[in-house]
Automatic annotation (TrEMBL), chain B:
Protein name: Prokaryotic-type class I peptide chain release factors domain-containing protein
SUPFAM superfamilies (UniProt xref): Release factor
Lineage: Eukaryota, Fungi, Dikarya, Ascomycota, Pezizomycotina
Compositional bias annotation for Basic and acidic residues: 136-147
Organism: Meristemomyces frigidus
Localization per record: Mitochondrion
Length: 369, 184
């Protein structure tokens, strides 16, 4: 990390003595000023709740935590994810803006054509963490006109009990924010479930020990033997390779966010630069078992996106495969397609870094195209 | 029983409300609504989220919620990073741009100009009221001083009065800002 110019520190001190300690974490004066303002607001708000008139001491404590590199979302306890303000807590990955952009775009894509679309959509989010993906998808889907009578059956699954608890709390506060009128929107939100399951567990090998596999957990939920169908499968799995975790991952992320949500902890014999791909073949196997027609998987960059797209091309069941960038709806001057190793051309949509892989097949092709 | 007391207290309150209050502030004239902000077409702006280069996603935790929009016909650029929510920053940036365009287009008649003029008027009238109040106070003090002066001796009276009124004027003048903010 480049060192901070002493003139910048002097400039910061002239504005507020609490700014210089924030600079190493924020890197620039503008974001340090923004964060100090938010920390101040938080200190005043929490101070008022405890009946304290002065919040100076607590503000100093908050600044000290941020100065050590702790993410501001853990300090303030929330993060904005699209339109939603979701709770955050140490031990659970903080939702990322780019994920919100992908999920919003997916909700828009699924709302473009309603003719031929089933009136009930089953959506599964694997590695759901804070629950941000199903909650935002729900919000964005019903924000689109013409979707008010469509029912969403949404399930999130995660291996971390802590994450599941947070997701359920986030669900509760979203329910509280809804209108009291009973609509498809409110019932879909209330019926959302978060299950304890291990995505990488392929068979009912150790059924006695929790967590169980995804298919089993879903069977237990619906209480049916044949595996239920989920038309849509979304996942933001741990995708950072052990090499990238050591080199290109930010220190604040490495030191404060759960490694379980970042790096697959079951590395195969793959070299350390590629061991971040562990989840994707498993997610595709689950997509087959659950008769999934639409998938959206988050990836680290364009290279990983191409590797995942290659996996999909090899399956040859997918009618369309696309790579989405950070802002999938935006236009950019960058290349609008990439060539895979097998020679297939895959369209790349939007602006920014390669962020997710989107594909569909079967009956969904009729109403998505 | 509790309900009875409750209804009773409600009733007494109602009775009280019917009586005119001793100290009332005259309600100001209802303000005319500000002219609306001009609508901005989404096709006329170029929006970008300032998040810098480098990797995104899980590898980094970017806190920037800043939004920058460029108005393509005029080339005006506005930026908003007020809140942690990018969605509210998007709205704030659009409002800011709308006000800027309005100001350029209508000048004196623009929303911002009218808003600003109202604020200065309000401030000026508050200042005026404050000055009047302090002048009155000083005058009362002066009258008191004169009464006391009469008691102490005939000659000192005129000088005491002129001195007091002089002080009240300078006090009033200097208080243009101070009492106005205090009254507000």
């Amino acid at each position: 990390m480049p060192r901070l110019a002493p003139s910048l520190l002097r400039q910061a001190r002239a504005i507020d003595v609490l700014l210089p300690p924030l600079l190493p974490a924020c890197r620039d004066l503008r974001s340090a000023e923004n964060e100090l303002r938010w920390l101040k607001d938080h200190a005043i708000k929490t101070g008022r709740q405890c009946g304290l008139a002065h919040s100076d001491a607590s503000l100093k404590r908050l600044v000290a935590r941020r100065a050590r590199g702790e993410p501001i979302q853990y300090i303030l306890g929330t993060e904005y994810f699209g339109d939603l303000e979701l709770k955050c807590q140490p031990g659970v990955l903080i939702p990322r803006q780019e994920t919100a952009a992908s999920v919003t775009h997916l909700a828009q894509q699924l709302s473009k054509k309603r003719k031929g679309r089933p009136s009930d959509l089953h959506i599964l989010d694997l590695c759901s963490g804070s629950g941000c993906i199903p909650l935002l998808f729900h919000h964005e889907f019903y924000a689109q006109p013409g979707n008010e009578h469509c029912k969403l059956h949404m399930v999130g699954a995660d291996i971390s009990v802590q994450a599941l608890e947070l997701a359920r709390r986030n669900q509760k506060s979203q329910i509280a924010a809804q209108s009291k009128r009973v609509t498809a929107q409110t019932t879909s939100l209330a019926a959302m479930r978060f299950l304890h399951a291990d995505v990488l567990l392929s068979e009912a090998a150790n059924a006695i020990h929790a967590p169980i596999g995804v298919v089993e957990a879903l069977q237990q939920l619906t209480n049916t033997r044949p595996t239920p169908a989920y038309e849509v499968l979304i996942s933001n799995p741990p995708y950072i390779s052990s090499q990238a975790f050591r080199t290109t991952t930010a220190r604040s992320v490495r030191n404060f966010e759960p490694k379980l949500a970042l790096v697959p902890d079951n590395p195969s014999s793959a070299p350390s630069a590629l061991d971040g791909d562990v989840f994707y073949p498993r997610l595709l196997a689950l997509a087959d078992q659950l008769r999934t027609e639409i998938i959206l998987f988050e990836v680290a960059d364009i290279d990983q996106a191409q590797r995942v797209a290659t996996l999909l091309a090899r399956q040859s069941t997918w009618r369309t495969v696309e790579i989405w960038r950070d802002e999938p709806g935006a236009t950019s001057d960058e290349a609008d397609h990439v060539l895979l190793d097998g020679g297939e051309s895959v369209p790349v949509r939007g602006a920014g870094n390669g962020r997710s892989v989107f594909a569909y097949r079967g009956a969904a092709a009729a109403w998505l195209q | 029983m509790w309900r009875k007391i409750w209804t009773l207290s409600l009733r007494t309150r109602g009775v009280q409300a019917e009586h005119p209050r001793l100290f009332t502030t005259t309600p100001g004239k209802p303000e005319k609504a500000l002219p609306p902000r001009p609508k901005i077409l989404e096709t006329e702006i170029d929006e970008s989220f300032l998040r810098g280069s480098g990797p995104g996603g899980q590898k980094i935790n970017k806190t920037s919620s800043a939004v920058q929009i460029k108005h393509l016909p005029t080339g005006i650029v506005v930026k908003s990073q007020e809140t942690r929510s990018r969605e509210s920053n998007r709205k704030l940036a659009r409002n800011l741009l709308a006000e800027k365009l309005d100001q350029i287009e209508k000048g004196e008649g623009s929303r911002m100009a009218i808003k600003g003029a109202r604020a200065t008027k309000k401030k000026a009238s508050a200042g005026k009221k404050a000055r009047r109040k302090y002048r009155k106070l000083e005058e009362e003090k002066g009258v008191k001083g004169r009464v006391e002066g009469v008691g102490s001796g005939g000659d000192g009276m005129s000088s005491a009065v002129s001195g007091d009124t002089g002080a009240s004027y300078t006090g009033g003048g200097g208080g243009e800002v101070g009492p106005a903010t205090g009254a507000g």
